[in-house]
Structures are given as structure tokens and as C-alpha cells.
Amino acid sequence: MRDVLLINLCSYPEFSVGEVYPIGLNKIKSYLERRGYECQIYDYHITPTLNMYKILEMNYKYIGISIRNMDTLELDSKIQYKNFVSFINEFYKIKCEKRSYSKIVIGGSGYSLYCEEFNRYINYDHGIVGNGEIAFEYLLKGIIGQKNIEISECNQERILYDESLIRAYLASKPTISIGLQTYEGKCTKGCIYCCYNYKNTQFNSKKVKDILSEIRQLKSLHVKSLYIVDQVFNITDEYAINLLRYIKKDIYGINIMAFLNPSNSKVLYKLLKECNVFAIYSFDSFSERILSRMKKGFTVSEIITTIELCRDHNVEFSCSL
Questions:
Q1: Which of 117, 148, 194, 292 has its CA 20 to 30 A from that of 110?
Q2: What's the predicted TM-score (pTM) here?
Q3: CA distance linking residue 200 with residue 185, whole number of Å
Q4: How do residues 41-86 score in pLDDT, each as one tens digit?
Q5: Around 321, how many Cα atoms within 13 Å sit in the side-chain half-sphere?
Q6: Who contacts 119 (Cβ-Cβ below 8 Å, separation ≥6)?
Q7: d(Cα 225, Cα 89) in Å, to the nearest integer?
Q8: 4: left (phi over 0), alpha (psi -120 to 50) or beta
Q9: Span 245-289, pLDDT tens digits
């Protein structure tokens, strides 16, 4: 049997989750292939039909189903819970009817957050909470075999992007932003409403040389836009400044988007402008009382300073309220 097939369920129109490149699945694929395992991503942009029978006929030891988001990422925020449950149970039923030896593995950020509720209603062989690459390696090696697996370990080696998948996404939407990760782990900011507070992953930053290698690969594939997928890029201003200084020469011709926290560092804004970074801020409120209750960690005065510095340095930005 072949090793691992990863189904990017959220890429299929019937789930209406949106156009998001599956960096998490690509990270698993890169990790496993580097260690000699075979891994394939099953995605709408390459395989437009979601045929459960044909998937099982591919004869993989483990078939991973990724649940990235529970909502549609659109203004209606329609909950997709029933759609995921229905697909997983039908897939598992067919697997049993065909007496397939493939194991159905459920994972992804959406599943990690809501696994206890999911597990009440779905049939599956393994459920992964946390980083999937390490869990799949453990499964393949026979180190773990329990039904519910929780991983707090963190891996931050270089991602080798799936070039055929990148090209397929670019063909579908030439302006799409491809994810770039610089660190992993529980967010230190602690905003009370944010799902990143529920992560149970060790903090680990990626080596600068690996970030540069990823940018160069994406540039060679004619990617025009990068999205830094960290919770906030300037987890400290010094962290972001150091990275921007290194990657400045590698991002010519590429647009970047990143979430940032308010800052009064003029050096940071100078680099944001020079690196063509579109800054996204979660100000959320202009009330000191609300900011305090939400544990945002900054004040209205700091928000105003941030807006003024963005304007002074011609940094494009948006904010959520």
C-alpha cells in the first residue's frame, strides 16, 4: 500500500470555504517526503471530482481529511459542520463496505478546535489535534496507534512547496496569496476571543535561511503575493524587523500581507514600506474599556500612533472593528 493521501476537503465548492492555499497539508507532505514516505494532496484544483470510491481504490495506508475552517470565510459565515459530518460518515461507510484497509484520519485547525464535538458524531480511525506531520510520521512508524492523538511538538523546517499545486492555484486565481509561515506556537497576545489561545503547540521560529529559500521557490513559480500566516507578524517589533531586513532583497516584485500589532517603531514602518507589506490590524475597538476587557494589550493612543505612522510612511493598511 502507498503511504498517505491528504484530502483538502475545504477546496471543494460544495463546502464553500474559499480560495485558500493548503499550506498546512503542504507542510505535512514536505515533512513526510523528506523522510522517504509517499504523500499526495487531493485538491479540487487538480482533481475536481470528490469520488470516494476512486479515492479508496488509490490504496493508501492513511487517508487524511483536513477540516480547516468551520465557516465559509464569507460575510454569511455559514457553519459547515453538518457537511463535514455527512461526508466523513459516508466515506467511512463506503470504506467498511469495501473492506478497505485504509485508515481514515481526521485533522486540521477546525477539527483541532472542535474535536470533542466532532467525535460524538463521526466515524473515523484516528483524529489528530495539533501538528499533523509529526502525528503521521508516528502512525507510519507504528509509534502510536490510539484513536485520538494530540501533538504539542512543533516542526519548523523548510517547506518544499508542491509546485504542481501552486501552479494549479495560480491558474485558478493569478492574484492568490500563498501562505508563508515564520513561526509556530501558542500566541503570546491572549486576546480573549481568538482561537489561537487554544493552541497547545510549543513556540518555535523558522530559520531565516529556510524562509528565504521558500520565498525564492515561490518567486521562481511566479507567485505575486505572499500572506504571512503567523498570528501576528511582529510578535515583537525586533522579530519582524530582523526578518524584514533579511528578506528585503528577496521579495522584489512580490506583495506581502501580514497581521500586525500596533507599534511606535519608525524602523518597522520604514521596512514595511520598503518590503511592500500590506498591514492588517485587529484594532477591534476605539474604547479603552472594551480593549481592556478583550485583553488586546494596547490602548487607543497606540492605535492612533500606529495609524499616523502608517500614513507618514505610506504603508497601506486595513483594520477590523
A1: 292
A2: 0.93
A3: 7
A4: 999 999 999 999 999 999 999 999 999 988 887 788 888 899 999 9
A5: 6
A6: 127, 148
A7: 37
A8: beta
A9: 998 887 777 899 999 999 999 999 999 999 999 999 999 999 999
